[in-house]
Amino acid sequence: MNMSQRNSFQPKTDAISEEIVTAFLAQTSYDFHELFHNVHASLRARNAAHGGEDTLRLRVYEKLQILVRKGFVEKAAKQYTGVEAALRAHSSKLSKARLQAEEWKATKAQLEKAAEQR
Predict the structure, then answer these.
(1) In whole angstroms, how far apart are CA 35 and each of 26, 88, 101?
(2) What pLDDT, in 10s, does the model give residues 53-79?
C-alpha cells in the first residue's frame, strides 16, 4: 500500500444529519416514526440509504438525539420540534462541509489522474 493512500484524509459528509435538518426546515414538528420515514425516503432518493432499515433507524435516532442535545431540536413527550434559527445555521455549516468534501474528491481525482499519466 502506498504511504500517501494509507495516511490520506478524506472529509465525509453527513447525509443523515443533512436530511434531518432539511426535514425540520420543511415541517417544524414530527414524531420519530414520521421523521424516520421522511428521512429514509430522502436518503433512498439520493441513493444514500446504506445498510438495513433497522440500522438506519438507529443511526437516525442517534443523530436526532445529538441534535436535541445541541439545541437544534426540542423534544416534548414524543414530539420533536426544530429550532428554525439554529437549524438554518447548522444547515449552512453542513452545506459548506459538503462543498469541501466535493472539492477534495475532485482534487484527489485530478492528482490520481496525473500520477497515472507519469
Answers:
(1) 11, 18, 26
(2) 899 999 999 999 999 999 999 999 999
From the list 88, 78, 77, the residue with the least C-alpha distance to 34 is 78
End-to-end CA distance of the chain: give it in Å, rounded: 18
Distances (CA, A) of 24 to 11, 55, 77: 25, 22, 17
CATH number, domain 14-117, options 2.40.40.10, 1.10.10.10, 1.10.8.60, 1.10.720.60: 1.10.10.10
Residue 7 has pLDDT above 80, yes or no: no
Q: What is the pLDDT of residue 103?
A: 87
Q: Is the pLDDT of residue 4 over 60?
A: no
